[in-house]
Amino acid sequence: MHSHLHFHPIDGESLAQSVVNHVTQAVAEDLGTGDISASLIDPDAQATARVITRQLGVFCGALWVNETLRQIDPTIQIQWEVKDGDRVAPDQILFVLRGRARSLLSAERTLLNFVQLLSGTATRTAHYVALLSGTDTQLLDTRKTIPGLRIAQKYAVKCGGGSNHRIGLFDAFLLKENHIVAAGSIGGAIEAAKTAFPDKPVEIEVENLEELAEAMAAGADIALIDNFSIADTQTAVAISRGKIVLEASGGITQDSIAEIARTGVDYISCGDLTKGVEPLDLSMRFVLDQ
Q: Which of 12, 107, 112 is nearest to 68 (CA)?
């Protein structure tokens, strides 16, 4: 259909609040009643710390770094050498920190954890997006995120060049097999959704071409074609063009995604972007100021 349906984006206020919540929780679990190792260091000692990447990748996590420093020691100065979404190469300096040696050591693990996780998600997303080059298909994330870190990971997907599917169960319909069983039919499920929340997009999961035809007849906005063969996906694209948006899903891997995209589907959603986390390899180089 290629008049891509956009899901509700993550708004700045939700993102900002999530960053504060994530960092508050992370600092509490790491520092607890206080950093006993850092307490051995002269409280007046000043240091410089350079954070570098050892790998190629896409950087993400500046908001979480800034908030970690704000909560642990707002006197630490940060010099940014990259911004979210930048491609980075081995041994590249990402940012430089200057301040109390104690504070830098206390903040190190928390800020690296966020940058490693989110840069890993952005990097994996960029890899999948590259596999879609030459097609009009957009890559979508899913709700298969690390509990508590959904908005962070969805933000990282955007930084890697992907697009966000619904944030949760509240902002768009995705009617799956059990919803359809409960409603009695595909048509019944779609009608109930449109009646209850007429302003929300209605997406319905279909298992075969017959169910796709039923979803189109009932006026669904998007059909999630689940584990379709390449041949059936091509047929689905041909019969749906201009009538319904198509999203391919189900066991999508880097080996299969390009072939699926070449069928002409509007979207491919992939849980692997956020549930399979491969952290970007980072290092903090620490030097005491003389």
A: 107
